[in-house]
Amino acid sequence: MPNLDFADNQFDLCLCSHLLFLYSEQLSLEFHIASIRELLRVASEVRIFPLMQLNCEPSPYLGAVIDALDPECFKIQICPVAYEFQKGGNQMLKISQRAISERLAA
Question: How many Å apart are CA 4 and CA 88, to the nearest integer?
Fold first, then answer.
């Protein structure tokens, strides 16, 4: 990442586990945004887990990443999950591309 050797919209779902947000101290905000945009290029839905850093603190990048994504093009949700990787780490970020009809209605 952030460059993937796949065609646009090649997948319905892309899962990113234990990389983005977890390594916020090691990977820049720009890397996070570019990587997520690339995942959204190749898949109509992206799920990222966990949203915590290695030190069990929330990632400082989460808000900035959400703000960087166009709400007219993407539906963005923070969803609870049944699995808790770290204490308090039981949420995932779910980003899906909005259908053209949804965009026109907004």
Answer: 31
Cβ burial, residue 86 (10 Å; 0-12/13-18/19+): middle
Q: Are 80 and 51 in contact (CB under 8 A)?
A: no
Say how far apart CA 22 and CA 28 lie, in whole Å. 12
Scanning 43-93, the segments in alpha helix (DSSP H) are 62-68
Retrieve residue 3's tokens: 């460059």
Residues 38 and 3: beta-carbon distance below 8 Å: yes
CB atoms within 10 A of CB 48: 26
What is the reported pTM? Answer: 0.89
pLDDT at 85: 79
- Which of 36, 42, 38 has the alpha carbon at shortest distance from 76? 36
